[in-house]
């Protein structure tokens, strides 16, 4: 797919410009993995066209996978996202983009919410919590897993039912 003409992009609105850039980026397909040094080893496994075809279920699965790993892992999401997409036959670009829910600006809020959620889980279940730093890590991990599953489910539903609007905007020239 050829990159969009800059003159025609500037005449459109902000969303149309972003959609044109996303279409150009997604048009590269498996070549994206081939270009990335840390992901080249996944290239042969992820070159199947199903991973790069946007459909309602593939998009929803990919976004949900990305949000789950974005909320549960503080760094190093991409290889795990790729492997999960391979197992679920999910749309890889949506999964990779969805991991950006975890940015330096959102990281403190995400892990504060994870800690509070984990604390509420341990208090409600009356399980003993270890002392020291291990208690903070245990509470944060449990909470991030619960938040990851919950927000992944919400993301799946939002993408599944909002697919018509997204696919319409991305298919316009």
UniProtKB/TrEMBL annotation:
It comes from Limnobacter litoralis. Pfam families: DUF2062. InterPro entries: DUF2062. The chain crosses the membrane at residues 62-83, 90-113, 133-163. Keywords: Membrane, Transmembrane, Transmembrane helix. This is DUF2062 domain-containing protein. It comes from the Bacteria. Residues 39-164 form the DUF2062 domain.
């Amino acid at each position: 797919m050829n990159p969009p003409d800059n003159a025609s992009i500037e005449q459109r609105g902000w969303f149309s410009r972003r959609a044109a850039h996303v279409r150009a980026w997604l048009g590269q397909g498996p070549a994206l993995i081939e270009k990335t040094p840390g992901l080249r080893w996944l290239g042969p496994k992820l070159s199947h066209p199903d991973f790069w075809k946007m459909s309602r279920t593939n998009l929803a699965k990919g976004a949900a996978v990305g949000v789950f790993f974005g909320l549960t892992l503080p760094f190093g999401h991409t290889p795990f996202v790729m492997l999960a997409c391979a197992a679920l036959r999910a749309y890889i670009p949506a999964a990779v983009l969805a991991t950006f829910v975890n940015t330096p600006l959102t990281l403190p809020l995400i892990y504060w919410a994870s800690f509070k959620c984990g604390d509420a889980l341990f208090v409600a279940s009356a399980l003993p919590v270890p002392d020291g730093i291990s208690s903070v890590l245990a509470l944060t991990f449990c909470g991030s897993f619960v938040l990851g599953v919950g927000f992944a489910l919400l993301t799946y539903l939002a993408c599944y039912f909002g697919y018509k609007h997204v696919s319409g905007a991305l298919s316009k020239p």
